[in-house]
Every structure is written in structure tokens, then in C-alpha cells.
Here is the input.
Amino acid sequence: MSVYRRGLVSRLVEGLRYGGGAGQWSWLLHRITGLGILLYLVVHIWDTFLVIFSPASYDAIMGFYGGKIHGVEYPLLRWAFRLGELGLFASVVFHAVNGLRVILFDLSPIRAVGAQKELFWAVVALFFFIMIPVTFIVIHALVAEPTPVAAAIVFPRNFVQAFVH
Here is the structure.
């Protein structure tokens, strides 16, 4: 006699309908951001690996990340990669801040369990506190013309000139 087991899609939908509240969403976002960071690291290791074995391929990929294909600039491609970098940064920030919340649970589980919702909202608030200025800086740099020294947007001119000259 076999036992009926629902399909993967129906189990995923049912899992997302679970009303576990802040703890469930915190866990899910932590898992998704962790997987996103892992994907980035795999791609980063692969393209950095090309520096040694195929410098021309590495240069082409770096140009592609900057929005150029065979020397022709594609602004939408540049926007896509810059917004991807912003998404990566957001993933790292959320994963790190939520990781601090997880550490609080590990160090003091009895007190932290009662404050699950408050700690989750503190994570969200700290995430936005960090991400709002970062998003402004990234979007401002994206709207402005590309410059050889992108740090000029963030740092004062004399600070940048100390490293350029």
C-alpha cells in the first residue's frame, strides 16, 4: 500500500501559506539571500579564474559587466549589472543583519523567542537605514556619466586625488 504524497509545487505553495509570521519570513529571506550570495561567489570565482588562463576573456567579461560588448556601450546592460550589484549588496546587508538576530537567538533563546517579531522589525529597520543611502549612491553613480574613478561620487575630491596621483 502506498501513501499519497503531494507534488513539490503544492508543498511549496502550502509552505508559503503557513502563517508562522516574522520567524518564517526571516528564515526564508535569510535562506534566499544566502543562496544569492553563494551564486555570486561562484560567478566571481569563475570570472576571476579567467585572469590567469585567458586575460582577453577576462577583459571581455569585465567590459560586459560595464555594459560594453565589442567596444559598443549598451546603457541598459550597464543598468542591469549595476542594479544587480545593488541587489547583491542588499542581500549581504540583510543576511549579515539577520545573522546578528540569529546570534541573539543562539545566545539567549528564552528571551529572544518572546521578542521574535520585534527583532525582525529591528532587522528590517536597520536594513533600510543602511540601504537607503547606499541605493542613492549607486543610482546617482548610474545616472551620472561613467567616470574612471567611480569613488569620486562618494569621497571628497582631495581624498581621491591622493590615490590617483
Observations:
- The CA atoms of residues 136 and 142 lie 10 Å apart.
- The mean pLDDT is 81.
